[in-house]
Amino acid sequence: MLLEFAQEIAPLDDGPDVFDRAVDLAVLLWNSPLLPESAHAGNLDQIRQWLANKGLLDLQVEIMRLLELRQTRYPTDRRMVMDYQLTYEPQGPRFTATSVDLTPPEKRLS
Fold it and tell me: What span, in angstroms and rounded, lies between the C-alpha atoms of 26 and 67?
């Protein structure tokens, strides 16, 4: 799912360097809604500040679109990515992650 989400940021045919950065951003945006409200707001402030420093505030709309997409397309996935590795194999990129499921145990499907 995360590779699919990253392709909303940059397609695979943009090359490994661009796609690597797209995956980095996808992980940040994937995890952000799972943070406590104050940390989520702080995370958004950091993104805005970074965009402002780069003169890219127009991208703020795109970041908000991606966050909304995360929430609407994957609303029940509460896995937080803790660490990951992206490798390229002949059949395409391979995303391997260590994650923590933040779904309360009583709400997990068996």
Answer: 9
Using one digit for the tens of pLDDT, what is the confidence trace for 59-96? 888 888 999 999 999 999 999 999 999 999 999 999 99
Q: How far is CA 104 from CA 18, 24, 41, 107, in A?
A: 36, 27, 22, 5
- Entry pTM: 0.84
Locate 61 and state its tokens: 């709309």
Does residue 110 have a pLDDT over 90?
no
What is the per-residue DSSP string for 12-77? GGG-HHHHHHHHHHHHHHHHGGGS-HHHHHHHHHHHHHHHHHTT-GGGHHHHHHHHHHHHHHSTT-
Q: In terms of C-beta density within 10 A (0-12 exposed, 13-18 middle, 19 or more buried), how is residue 55 classed?
A: exposed
